[in-house]
Amino acid sequence: MSTFVVVGGDAAGMSAASKAKRENPDLDVVVFEQGEWVSYGACGLPYYIKGEIQSLEDLVSVTPEQFREEREIDLRTGHEVVDIDPDQQTVIAQHEAGEVVQPYDHLLIATGAATVTPPIGGFDKEGVYTLGSMSDGKDLREYVARSREDQDLQQPDRGPACQFLETCSGPVGIVGGGYIGVEMAEALAANDFEVHLFQRGDRILTSFSEATSEAVLDHLDEQDVAVYLNAEVTSFDGDNAVEAVVTNEDHVPVEMVLVGTGVRPRTALAEDAGVELGPTGAIATDSYRETNLPSVYAAGDCAETQHVVTGEPVYIPLALTANRHGRAIGQTVTGERTEGGGVAGTAAVKAFDVEAARTGILNHETAQAAGFDPLTETIDANSRAGYYPEGGTVRVTLTIDRPSGRVLGGSLVSEYGEGAVHRSHALVGAVTEGVSVEDFANYDLAYAPPFNTTWDPVLTAAKVVERRR
Amino acid sequence: MSTFVVVGGDAAGMSAASKAKRENPDLDVVVFEQGEWVSYGACGLPYYIKGEIQSLEDLVSVTPEQFREEREIDLRTGHEVVDIDPDQQTVIAQHEAGEVVQPYDHLLIATGAATVTPPIGGFDKEGVYTLGSMSDGKDLREYVARSREDQDLQQPDRGPACQFLETCSGPVGIVGGGYIGVEMAEALAANDFEVHLFQRGDRILTSFSEATSEAVLDHLDEQDVAVYLNAEVTSFDGDNAVEAVVTNEDHVPVEMVLVGTGVRPRTALAEDAGVELGPTGAIATDSYRETNLPSVYAAGDCAETQHVVTGEPVYIPLALTANRHGRAIGQTVTGERTEGGGVAGTAAVKAFDVEAARTGILNHETAQAAGFDPLTETIDANSRAGYYPEGGTVRVTLTIDRPSGRVLGGSLVSEYGEGAVHRSHALVGAVTEGVSVEDFANYDLAYAPPFNTTWDPVLTAAKVVERRR
């Protein structure tokens, strides 16, 4: 009987384990997870902290018991894999009561990513948080709950964002203007905190188009989030607890700070076993997610993947890719060799009352490095028929390759509910299939007055950029 | 100097005229429109009748004055073209004050469609309406307004749908369960009419999947619309005014009836000139929308087009196609020969608090006739992350070709605002590009908890149908 061992029990690991067991019930599937949580929706943590989700358990899609009893997966939580021996085809896992040596026929390394700890003085002070795990989420929720209790007692008025509010906590700082930073700004402001967001570069959401970044920035401003661009955070001031964020230009008093400056792949275990990393610093794999070691796979936030436009390796750790690649590996190890597909770098974010999505290649230097001659246009269009009583504006950025007309990437932003994110689905196909903007502009997309204009905004954008070629 | 003559001043005609003039300002562009309205959003009429749009003028995207003054198009409203002489390259138009003979170098026939008048006795009675023009819309709005005035005076309780309402008018009948029927059911019910909808076949919205039809039917039922399936309407009873809809099974008292049983292309003028029709009964064109007569084009609701999946001629008269083909013709006649693309048969509809979209080929007989071996699956999935506080259900139907896996078509339905329509954008690309369901399931679609599950419902549907192959 064959054994499939998985290291790491989140999206990639549990998708692979479930798929493999489903395809071949005779396969022994063993999963080692060092923590207690498996298969959890980390993307939901900001909404848990915000208070819209009542329990951490709600973020768990399948419980450990369900994996064990219903799916018959030998899931061992509290087990840290400390060594892989590819010659013997064994892993060594440590747990409370000792150590176990587990042989494998196929191995999946799905060790995930760790939050980046930037070189900021005072990082270890009380009141400095990151958001990389369920327990981080728990800590932040508890902080919010404590603060709300305090403010209910005191009702202070501590800053400009609070002047129209009955109660206001904080001020609090967020370092980093990516997804986590923006989502946490919403979560904290919804709890009446005065929010200060520090971003190193000259715009937030840097993977989106400049026009999208600008629209979200304007909206954060409307929501009384103080955004500091070009802010190099040098230290967190205070005695035991953080009392201020110090940047190259400012000294901003805060009672708490969340650092969300990205993640790096957890690769130490793999490297020690002789698994090669790729140019991005994440584990290198082929299109079947197999590493340089035979029968050793890697997927999820510890691995790199290939971009559908350039074919080049990229490190874009997101939930769908982890699920998809895990599932493909589950099929492969049970006999049906399956590619899980590349990534288009698609991402979506909600920020208060706006939504945004991006896909493909928007950055001109990246496009040029891949041999394209990029051209970018941005349009603003009605999200629904102009005469329809509801509606707003969708801003669409398209980047194409000028000579061929190929759609390289797109970025959209609209009011929440006006469809920027779901409309991006149209662009993912175009980017993935290498469709020209001319052909794309002729797509027979759905139209009715409550949903769009006759030419959906993505088609209008295509017409405009096509005319500029 | 060259002259481009357009017959018909709605979507196809005005798009062609505008594009041609924009590309070549030296071109003489003459448009003959027999009515007074041009470039109007007929798709908005149900919302005007509902009362959500205050004025008919709001449906007009560009006024006749703007076409004349800003776009320098020689637009002649109140001019009916009665003859085309392709040998002389002239058209004859009649107007109040006489007749004009207009030479052309390029001619576009964009005469649109007329509402079908089914063989129902008593069709000419007072209170029987169709909805094919702006003046039809005006008449219906006036009817609604009169009834509301009456009910404000009387406050009668006339039927089951009214029992929980303060006031109720009607009852009214709708013949036909297509877009118009469903949208008008919403418009009339919103005005407190008791609505009876008669559908000849065994389901409404027959171009959508059975699962979509069923969901919308259930919703109409929740909204107290009485739907009569398999109802063959034989006559409208009454003296001068309609008093009842008579079917093979029922005799339903009504005060008004709207007949929305489809449209047929207006082809008489073209036929008289020797323009050939295609197998669908609409004007045949090549991929440049040129007819059998040189320099004579046809587009919009009078013309057939090619289906992107089968390549076969189809008659699917919808607004985007008219706009797109008009625009392409405008480019072609100014020197840049341009194909406007085929159609995927994409359509969207809002029905009270649900939304639905469809694209491609869903009908198994149609698929088989085109050489495919169709397989259809339907799934219900959460529209957002299960733990996210908002959200509903998206029902997705996918039809694929079993041997190749090619995505042939899809149909979606969800609560209004839960994204069935915009999500269909993903399927249009797959259908148009001939993508296999296996590749489609690997698309890197946008994900974040406020917008979908990690696997968007369209991807989940793809996984499910792929597994069934």
Automatic annotation (TrEMBL), chains A, B:
InterPro entries linked: FAD-bd_OxRdtase, FAD/NAD-bd_sf, FAD/NAD-binding_dom, FAD/NAD-linked_Rdtase_dimer_sf, Pyr_nucl-diS_OxRdtase_dimer
Pyridine nucleotide-disulphide oxidoreductase dimerisation domain segment(s): 347-452
Swiss-Prot/TrEMBL keywords: FAD, Flavoprotein, Oxidoreductase, Redox-active center
FAD/NAD(P)-binding domain: residues covered: 4-322
GO terms for MF: oxidoreductase activity
Obligatory cofactor(s): FAD
Keyword Oxidoreductase assigned: yes
Keyword Kinase found: no
Entries under Pfam families matching the protein: Pyr_redox_2, Pyr_redox_dim
Similarity section: Belongs to the class-III pyridine nucleotide-disulfide oxidoreductase family.
Record-given protein name: FAD-dependent oxidoreductase
Source organism of the structure: Halomarina salina
Phylogenetic classification of the source organism: Archaea, Methanobacteriati, Methanobacteriota, Stenosarchaea group, Halobacteria
